[in-house]
What we know:
Number of strands: 9
Structural class: alpha/beta
Oligomer: single chain
Strand content: 15-25%
Bound molecules: (3S,4R)-3-hydroxy-2-oxopiperidin-4-yl beta-D-xylopyranoside
CATH topology: TIM Barrel
Largest sheet: 8 strands, parallel, barrel
Amino acid sequence: DSERLKDIFADSYHIGVAVNARQVNSSDEKxxxxxxEHFNSLSPENGLKWERVxxxxxxxxxRFGDEYVALGEKIGAFTIGHCLVWHQQTPxxxxxxENNEPLSKDALISRMEEHxxxxxxxxxxxxxxxDVVNEAFNEDGSFRESNWYKVAGKDFMKAAFRKAHEVDPExxxxxxxxxxxxxAKRKGILDFAxxxxxxxxxxxxxxxxxxxxxxxxxxxxxxxxxxxxHEAGFKVMVTELDVDVLPRPRRAVGADLNMNFANSDxxxxxxxxxxxxxxxxxxxxxxxxxxxxxxxxxxxxxxTFWGLGDGNSWLNNFPVxxxxxxxxxxxxxxxxxxxxxxxx
Length: 344
Ligand code: XIL
């Protein structure tokens, strides 16, 4: 029996897991036990994204969310909301009026505020921290030309944080992104987050998603990210940790995202199971990453894994479809990878 993750890191940070719609209300005792024993924070993998929770104008679907917060209460978890404003998994109608014409800035911001009011309002006191805005920056530190930005400029972000705070003043509020280890991107994020704080807007933490590979980013890049976020005055959260063990298809190959890579020997080398060598690389990678996290545990308040077991991971279908990936600490049978866990 391997030790419980949340006990291993009890003196350091919350240990979280992203859960899907089956897992929030599972009849599988193994799933329920694993979640309750190992994790003291939860994230909703997809169920609170705009397309799920607010699929049509004036129609909200809170079935997932209600089960999700109930599970969080049951296991006493620090329960995260993900995410209020993002350019992906957001329906097209959000940006359009009844004639399918683009909304004005004011109308778009009102619609966004209404969404935040409905979703964050419903879970007031039950969701303890929100990813308010997700992935709004480019790699060079400029704002992403999303539908939000194109219509509302930077103000969409300020309005989102303001509204979230107004709706639930007790909730922590986060800005979340990938590749925060990239210095240029991070500078753009932190400069803007500081600008918001200077204007009296509450921003508690910067989420570093942590979708890592075996060799990218470097440990120095991860560490500098943690240090810079802390120095800018924010808590650090690792919000979506996983380690892709498969070779990254080159751009040219990845271009056809609909192609199924299940039969590719080159890009899906562990279709029949990961080799001992492969698992040793995963263990070494997790060990070195957690060594950095532990070194900076005074700055980090949460580390969340993006999925429970390997079979649940989005990395089986990203960046190309149909592969067999091994990015997490529990395998496809939801058995702990004891060799990996022992080393972290
Ligand atoms: C992913 C989910 O894991 C997938 O199931 C879904 O198909 C796409 O989104 N950054 C984020 C997460 O902030 O919401 C994404 O989750 C992974 C990348």
